[in-house]
């Protein structure tokens, strides 16, 4: 695999003994999207990584994957893959779904464990 | 989670929205995405064990110490903690393949390998790998040739086993950090071999 996440330094994702730690399913999805997009050449991993490090340095108190998601959206908007504000619009629409449908897709690890 | 209707959508909804948009546009394949999440959650690292193995591959003195007194050699790299009080390292050779199980529960060397994967805790693995190790290993993708003996080691609260995998061919001259990146958790447990990239 050509994508290697940092294991140390400001851009390194949270880990416990080398395993990536996702505090919530969306963090894993956001992580996977960036890796998948980089693997298929739709975003440039180095650019993503540099922007992530920069974002974390200006707001070190912000949760790691909140920064990750913000940078991913920014890079995709910059590349013209999605429109500015489009994610917010869609998210608001999703928030308005009927009760019982407001959950994220199942987490892959949950599927495997089951 | 109930979103606050007055506030902006939180990261969970934004992530879901982004995923929908990317999938609709064919920029991300959901199955591929699932695979990446799974891989990084479950198969990448664990770095501590990989560091121990890479050190042993590149430093004969350390290798000898590790095989003689695994607990002390591992502790010397700073990897100590609960569930790692007594660790024994088994060397994989051309003649013998070692595989580790905990038949009673899921005893596992936490300080070097993190928490055990779900299959390690699975009753089927725990029972069958003792009875028919060659078959179980083959099912997990590792074909051990007939001429190679298989030894199954039962970890317990007193002794936790791990293996020193064989260094793959074609990795001469690689520095320890690059070697460590090749080492997987499964190889250290003994259900896989380390492959060169």
UniProtKB/TrEMBL annotation, chain A:
Database matches in InterPro entries: CN_hydtase_beta-like_N, CN_hydtase_beta_C, Elect_transpt_acc-like_dom_sf, Nitrile_Hydratase_acc_put
Pfam families cross-referenced by the UniProt entry: NHase_beta_N (PF21006)
Domain Nitrile hydratase beta subunit-like N-terminal: 17-103
Compositional bias (Basic and acidic residues): 99-114
Positions of transmembrane segments: none
UniProt region (Disordered), positions on chain: 93-114
Name listed for the protein in its UniProt record: Nitrile hydratase accessory protein
From TrEMBL, chain B:
Keywords on record: Iron, Lyase, Metal-binding
EC main group: lyase
Annotated Nitrile hydratase alpha/Thiocyanate hydrolase gamma domain residues: 13-192
Keyword rRNA-binding recorded: no
Catalytic activity field: an aliphatic primary amide = an aliphatic nitrile + H2O
Catalytic activity, EC: 4.2.1.84
Pfam families: NHase_alpha
Residues that hold Fe(3+) according to the record: 102, 105-107
GO molecular function per UniProt: nitrile hydratase activity; transition metal ion binding
Gene3D superfamilies given in the database record: Nitrile hydratase alpha /Thiocyanate hydrolase gamma
Entry keyword annotation includes Iron: yes
Similarity field: Belongs to the nitrile hydratase subunit alpha family.
Name of the molecule in the record: nitrile hydratase
Top-level taxonomy: Bacteria, Bacillati, Actinomycetota, Actinomycetes, Pseudonocardiales
